[in-house]
Design a protein that fits this description.
This protein has a domain of 110 residues: Dna Ligase, domain 1 (2-Layer Sandwich), CATH 3.30.1490. It contains 16 helices and 35 strands. Strands 13, 14, 15, 20, 23, 24, 31, 34 and 35 form a 9-stranded mixed β-sheet that branches. A 6-stranded mixed β-sheet has the order 3-2-1-4-11-12. It has a 4-stranded parallel β-sheet with strand order 6-5-9-10. It is globular and about 80 Å long.
């Protein structure tokens, strides 16, 4: 028998999904995260779920792991001591940046400190022209002095970023070879290997971030792989990337920046796979955990990609799933500001001490405490009965920190907390939809994460989203995404030209180079030829514009310039509400994504079993804005395809709770998803 395991590490819990490939059964498990060493919780969880379902560790045929190590290292500034080699005259570019202030109207808000200290930045005597030709050859003697200086300072990693090396990497390659010869123990990150793309500051920043993370990720991955092998698991694990793909541990060490902010990506991939099964190709993913809410948009089956996001105040010029993250999760702390307004988040109680109702020492009220006070979560049967809630502690926290400072009663205070956090979540949905030209009424809200089901119905109602889809095991859904992800690797070239017949050959050459690199990577990842595919894209703009829009297309359309130009006009119309058909267009960046299709965790299709009455597990008084209502409580395990419910109702399962509002209906589809719709006429 073969098994697949996906592990997703969150701020509060580490989630695991176990799939039996033979009979297509899916099992889930949660353990508390261990932030000091995430691999401890991972191996604890793997051993526990294997023991629970009598699975020999040797029979695990596929293991994928979503890591927060890179993200945490950046947030906590616990990366490697890093040096920088940069073209002479550009030593302070990390400080200068693009002259954008962190807050336009706050003149006193300071920029974040660069990840490379000033005295660890060495200038290199060399210079290229903008076309890549050499103006000044590399001064090797001065370079050796700079390397010696960095070595004496004890740096673990060195970032190398020279002017115009994205066109001609000759000098960067010489520096990398010299570092290997004279400073072999250093982790080296060169910009032509990480992000060969124009815009000097963002390229430099990305290269520095990669170097800063390199030694930390290398040590963690080696430690994790050793633990996996020591426990008898024979396969090498895959690691999730920010672009939604997976990559082997060996490849993740060479470009660790691609694993930063990768935590929420697996959930988007799982939703994309679900859309292919159910036919709901337009989706807004809604992932609410203990510390944050992550929102993304899938348009006609394709997740949105961003290449210009910031991490800890610094640009990271790598392809990432376009996910908006806000500090609004179950552990988000509610508080009264100086003006007497109720606020929720972004500070979180985390896993320790956690919400007050967890009984782990938390004293401040959280979103979870509000749900507990309003009766929306089971006080005696959380995590399948492994956890009880201390309702009195939640009530005390809300009384002390909210009621006594605002002169409102406890029920109104708890409802206020939920209203505020729901409004914050709705704003995040607007960022990925309305503000980018999409109408939320044309989408399905896919809810997952431990707290997603508690908020999805309310948020969908506020945004006029017609339906909510809650997949099975929604509380551990990101770990399921790791079992349906493909190997992905992204490549880019910069070469600004206008799309005309005489430039066709240059465009084709650039894509052929990138395809060769992608093919080599897929071969290295042992992807067979019939499982390889390539996604093409071009960043284009009207001549004179400062920024570009990305259009994607098939290989067959590559040399049909009229089609490519029309695709750009349509994208410009969608984003900016106008296009200029007679304006000259400039192609700037050329992108290729190499995809290696991987085995997907099977999902069972179950025939409908209509029945007049769905068994009620119990009843509980639950508050729905108009006071407490005696509400039926259902077990998710008792639901079958074809079942229909009228709200109000609560559906409980091991890893999450789903709330159905009084004016909503719920049906169960053939894949055991819950479909919640506004209005009782839907039945």
């Amino acid at each position: 028998m073969k098994y697949m395991i996906g592990v997703d590490v969150g701020g509060t819990f580490t989630d695991l999904t176990l799939v039996n490939v033979g009979d297509k059964t899916i099992k889930n498990h949660k353990v508390y995260s261990t932030p000091d060493d995430p691999s401890v919780a991972i191996m604890t969880g793997i051993k526990e779920i294997a023991e629970m379902y009598d699975v020999p560790l040797q029979s695990i045929d596929y293991l994928a792991h979503g890591t927060t190590v890179a993200t945490n290292a950046l947030i906590e500034r616990k990366g490697a001591d890093t040096g920088l080699l940069v073209t002479k005259g550009f030593r302070d570019l990390l400080e200068i940046g693009d002259q954008t202030r962190p807050n336009l109207y706050d003149l006193f808000k300071r920029k974040p400190e660069p990840f490379v200290k000033g005295y660890l930045r060495e200038e290199v005597e060399e210079r290229l022209y903008a076309d890549g030709s050499v103006h000044q050859e590399l001064n090797r003697e001065a370079l050796l002095e700079s390397i010696s200086s960095l070595k004496d300072e004890g740096v673990e990693a060195v970032a190398v970023c020279l002017l115009f090396s994205y066109i001609n990497p000759k000098h960067e390659k010489e520096i990398v070879n010299t570092l290997k010869e004279h400073f072999p123990e250093a982790y080296v990150s060169a910009s032509h290997e990480i992000v060969p793309e124009f815009r000097e500051y963002s390229r430099l920043s990305t290269t520095v971030l990669n170097a800063y993370l390199g030694p930390v990720i290398k040590r963690y991955m080696e430690r994790f792989r050793d633990k996996v092998q020591t426990n008898g698991i024979k396969v090498d694990p895959y690691i999730t990337q920010s672009n939604g793909g997976i990559i082997s541990i060996q490849e993740s060490v060479s470009q660790p920046i691609r694993t930063a902010v990768s935590g929420p990506a697996a959930g988007v991939v799982a939703a994309q796979n679900l859309g292919e099964l159910t036919g709901y190709k337009n989706m807004i993913t809604f992932d609410v955990g203990g510390t944050s809410a992550d929102v993304s948009l899938i348009d006609n089956g394709t997740p949105q990609i961003s290449t210009g996001r910031e991490i800890e105040g610094f640009p990271a010029q790598i392809p990432m799933l376009d996910i908006v993250t806000i500090g609004a999760g179950g552990g988000s702390i509610a508080w009264i500001d100086e003006g007497g307004a109720l606020k929720v988040g972004p500070e979180s109680a985390g896993s320790k001490p956690g919400p007050a109702c967890y009984g782990r020492g938390g004293k401040r009220p959280t979103v979870t405490d509000a749900h507990a006070v309003l009766g929306r979560i089971n006080p005696n049967h959380l995590l399948g009965g492994r956890m009880d809630l201390d309702i009195s502690a939640a009530e005390e926290a809300i009384n002390e920190h909210i009621c006594q400072k605002s002169n409102i009663d406890r029920e109104r205070a708890a409802e206020g907390i939920l209203n505020v956090v729901n409004a914050n979540m709705a704003r995040a949905i607007r960022l990925v939809s309305v503000e980018k030209g999409y109408d939320p009424r044309e989408f399905t809200l896919v809810s997952f994460g431990g707290a997603g089901g508690l908020h999805a119905a309310s948020v969908a109602k506020a945004m006029n989203i017609p339906r909510v889809l809650v997949p099975p095991a929604s509380g551990t859904y990101c770990s399921m995404g790791l079992l349906v992800a493909d190997v992905r690797s992204d490549y880019v070239r910069t070469y600004p030209i206008q799309p005309n017949e005489e430039n066709k050959c240059d465009i084709l050459t650039l894509f052929e180079e990138m395809k060769s690199e992608g093919e080599a990577l897929l071969i290295k990842e042992q992807v067979s030829e019939d499982k390889r595919k390539y996604i093409y894209g071009i960043d284009a703009r009207y001549v004179g514009q400062n920024y570009e829009l990305t259009v994607t297309f098939s290989e067959d359309q590559l040399l049909d310039l009229d089609v490519l130009k029309e695709l750009f006009h349509k994208e410009h119309e969608k984003v900016y509400s106008y296009s200029k058909q007679d304006a000259d267009i400039e192609f700037v960046n050329y992108r290729l994504t190499a995809v290696g299709e991987q085995p997907k965790a099977p999902v069972r299709y179950v025939e409908s079993e209509p029945r007049e009455k769905v068994p009620v597990k119990s009843y509980r008084n639950v508050s729905f804005s108009d006071g407490y209502v005696k509400t039926p409580i259902y077990s998710r395990d008792d639901l079958r395809p074809g079942d229909k419910l009228l709200g109000p109702a609560i559906i409980e399962q091991m890893d999450s709770t789903t709330v159905i509002l009084p004016d909503q209906t719920m049906t169960v589809d053939h894949y055991l998803n819950l479909l919640i719709r506004n209005g009782k006429e839907s039945l």
